[in-house]
């Protein structure tokens, strides 16, 4: 049984749906820049127009209402609000756009969950060093305070940064996300460090200046797969799975929820590997200084993005300076787990329950919002997407078990995504939406999938149950 005030939601991100990349005074973001270089994204796709939600917001609202959502997670485009990244120049048209979105949601009794940063750094700040710069945390804090001041009278659920792990690793180690840097074993740790500092500064700003009046809550959204040993009971595989969890979820959750610092397993592994590679005395994993904001306790709930699971054994990247080499953990797919759409996405709903239990036991039983969970479709369009429909039923059933049988304090579930959209390096070749978007149509026609209809039924049924009890 889900709590009567359970949040039933769907999620989107500004760059993936809005389009209007130069409209209404918006400045360029790193994803605008990244996509305009040939060969970086599947089919040279880009988010210049996307779902055109900047002009078609009312269509999105119709979709939200059709599903019967109680909550909607969206992100703000930093560059649409502050074109050069600073409060020196506020773009009023950007403010008007988000004011309308928030006001329209509330008029329909839908609560907004607002993400401040979902991968799209203003290019003006990237030109000054981006997330590698020691100044970026204070710049983010200034942007966050502007948003709290401007929208916080109506927004009660805030996410500061979405998936710092993905931004750090895919954007600064692997180079397959914006800004496209490949600096293995170095930049990702620095970027992650500055993101944690930025998040903590924004949380403290909210806590001291806005919380008493606005009465909202603030967290950051952490992504993690579930990792389990490749051979059950094998000590080396168990240790490798623990390292993998530490380097993914623990990297950001440990400082915020447990100790105020990185997991010891991560620190010792990076230090040892640095020494082996002749890197010298200093660690590639930065340390928090006494001048940094306190990191511990800077989350009012645990926001989790979960998609898939992996089996793990020791190995990978030996002798290289890389995150893979640091953690000495190699992922393998269980052949019994079906793959959906994209190669990285094995369908493992029970992994979500396992991860929820792990969060409860490792991070002091926090309130949890599942802020993203979804199933990809590729190839020919299937509006009657039976597999995705079954996936959502299975996933939500696992969440129910986590609540009822494991005592996990889950407060909400957000499907990824409301709409088919620009899926980063995969462009429009991968579809995660509850609604299909026809990108060949100038009006970007939205059509509900079977999975959307079935999700709406689940929500309606749960609402009825909560009324009856």
Write a structural description:
This protein has 469 residues and is an alpha/beta fold. Helix 8 (164-172) packs antiparallel against helix 9 and helix 15 (386-404) packs parallel to helix 16. Helix content is 41%, strand content 14%. The chain has helices spanning 14-17, 30-35, 57-67, 78-81, 92-107, 123-126, 136-151, 164-172, 187-209, 211-214, 235-258, 264-276, 323-327, 349-362, 386-404, 450-468; strands at 7-11, 71-75, 111-117, 157-162, 217-223, 226-229, 302-305, 309-313, 330-332, 368-372, 410-416, 435-437, 446-448.
The secondary structure category is alpha/beta
- Shape type: globular
What is the name of the CATH architecture? Alpha-Beta Barrel
Number of domains: 1
Strand order of the largest sheet: 1-2-3-4-5-7-10-11
Pfam families: Glyco_hydro_1 (PF00232)
Keywords: Glycosidase, Hydrolase
Family: Belongs to the glycosyl hydrolase 1 family.
InterPro entries: GH (IPR017853), GH_1_N_CS (IPR033132), Glyco_hydro_1 (IPR001360), Glyco_hydro_1_AS (IPR018120)
